[in-house]
Amino acid sequence: MDDRVLILNFVPSSLSMIRFILFCIVLVPAFPSVATALQDTTTHLEEVTVRAYFTEQPLLRLTASAGVVGRTTLGHQQGTTLLPAINTVPGVRMEERSPGSYRLSLRGSLLRSPFGVRNVKVYLDEIPLTDAGGNTYINLLDAGGIAEIEVLKGPDGSLFGANSGGVVLIRPQGMRDEQDHTASLRVNGGSFGLFHEQLSTTLNPSPGYRFGFSQAYQRADGYRQHSAMKRAAFQTVQRWNYKPESELRLIALYSDLRYLTPGGLTEAQYTNNPKLARPATPATPGALEQQAGIVNQTLIGGLVHDTRIGTRLKHVATVFGSHTDFSNPFITNYEIRDEANVGFRTYLDYTGGRSTAFSWHANVGMEWQYGKNDFANYENHGGVRGDAMAIDALRSNQHFYFARFSADVYHRLLLETSLSLNYYGYRFRPLFPDSEPRYTRRTFDAEWMPRAALSYMFNPQSAGRVSVSRGYSPPTLEEVRASDQVINTALGAETGWNYEIGFRWQTPNRRVTLDGSVFYYRMEDAIVRQILETDAEFFDNAGGVTQRGIELSTSTWVIEPGQTSWLRGLQLGANLTLSKFRFGDYRVGNDDFTGNKLTGVPGTTLVSSASMQFPKGIGAYVMHNYTSAIPLNDANTVFANAYHVLQAKVTWDKPLGSNVIFQVFVGGDNLLNQRYSLGNDINAFGGRFFNAASPRNFYGGIALRI
């Protein structure tokens, strides 16, 4: 049987899809409901809260630098990608090399991430999306299945395990408690073959049982040659309150993602024809000839038990697992990975001293993960798997213990200390061409990750914060066993200390908010990506890296929502990131990169937005993103040009009866028609750095919510 990657053959037939959508349209109005607007504007002036440290607390008092991407921010986007919404958080950069291929960086470079997410810990509720080997497939998620995203910037592994970039906490649809019954259907399409359909519902059939379900299908042809993608995603949250203070919930996600990878272009190719897929050379075939692409079929699930023991003690226990079938026909080989992960997470949360003068909180717990990864590389004959080249079995094991204590003095001074002890190791056994009878073990030294922080309320509207934390991030299995097919046991973990001060301020009515941070992170043994002349990659430790940065975020309601004039509401926002990231002592052979700008990091990013509300349920949103020039190689001899990206969206909400909202929306992206590369291939061999983003493009759609 032909093993070619056929991304068009994994979804139901067109007739089946039409029947399914019609069924959903008929089904949705049948649910009992409470009338709710698609974009809830009544919560804009409420206090923003986060659950970053196990309990709900105001963002104003949080000791960490954090960003919240809520329902309103997600609703302002076209709904097919998380990228624009996440990039509204200063210090965070999400990139898209081609449709379906995403990268995420928190306060750092993308040196370690040719694709995917590394050096960042990601959770879906209490379930880690980051596997035991350190890799995260964030592109499996559909934007419509997410209710809220919280981002903790800088190393914060005390409660969440090894990382030096930060933590992303994702709250799936079905975790909110405002209404008993909701349902929505959304269908939209746009330029370059874009089509997206998303159905979600939350029901409460009995007082002790509540469930949410989300289904989504998305496809796109892409702007460039050989850049199509398709994804079918199914997600559910099942919640059983078997006692008033005890809940058992099931969270599961299945995603079938397939996309083609057009490959990087040289500057000349990018200038002459940015639509081009990577062409063949006398030495290597091109992306189209080799049918380069990714197939990722992943199932993730877990059970979370959340219970109160008395009035002060809470216990949370989670068991989880995942399985991934991954294949990647590439220019030089055809890789297949079989990945399975299991683990558990448990912690106690105790509240004491509930007086107005002093109260305190304590947590203690642990998390364990085990991963089974089989890597196999074959010859690639035009997208058809050939003879075996190398096969290896790798097993990863990581666990950590953590404790945290916080004290609140007169609701003004908040003190926090936390500590974790992190263990990581892997073992491997070559299977082909040479077979070893036993596994070889590589164990890393146990590493402490302390964090100390405080927040002080100067008055009810302003607070300052200070924190010191240590980052630690061992190499992922994809870095240990990269595409050069060599298991690099010499690759070490990167570590460092982060020092930070910040402030938050808001007016009494919260019409104006301001959040700022200044940080200095000194990283040792930074892991960097390198490319061989054969086009295979490998990873190495680059020595020291210094990261200095300033982050500012502000939001202003110029006109509060609910006015009676022609302009019913106007909100302006701006987010500024200034990064001065430099290599320390970094030499490769005779090349000295000491003092150079960190590869892949723009020095300045400014995201500005305006949200407007008009009569008759009409709303408009405009966002502008300025990104300065980006160094594309460690030598700093090649830069991607600075660019301006302008996006806009207009919506019209029409009530249909007392409990149904119908919405029509249209929008556009890259309205200035800039030529830019949204996801560059850094340190690319042969100068193939550039992956052109789409030029000016448009979309539109309809949505129903009850």
UniProtKB/TrEMBL annotation:
It is a multi-pass membrane protein. One of its GO terms (molecular function) is siderophore uptake transmembrane transporter activity. Keywords: Cell outer membrane, Membrane, Receptor, Signal, TonB box, Transmembrane, Transmembrane beta strand, Transport. It comes from the Bacteria. It is found in: Cell outer membrane. One of its GO terms (biological process) is siderophore transmembrane transport. Residues 291-671 form the TonB-dependent receptor-like beta-barrel domain. One of its GO terms (cellular component) is cell outer membrane. It holds the Pfam family Plug. Residues 61-167 form the TonB-dependent receptor plug domain. Its main location: membrane. PANTHER family: HEMOGLOBIN AND HEMOGLOBIN-HAPTOGLOBIN-BINDING PROTEIN 1-RELATED, TONB-DEPENDENT OUTER MEMBRANE RECEPTOR. Belongs to the TonB-dependent receptor family. This is Iron complex outermembrane recepter protein.
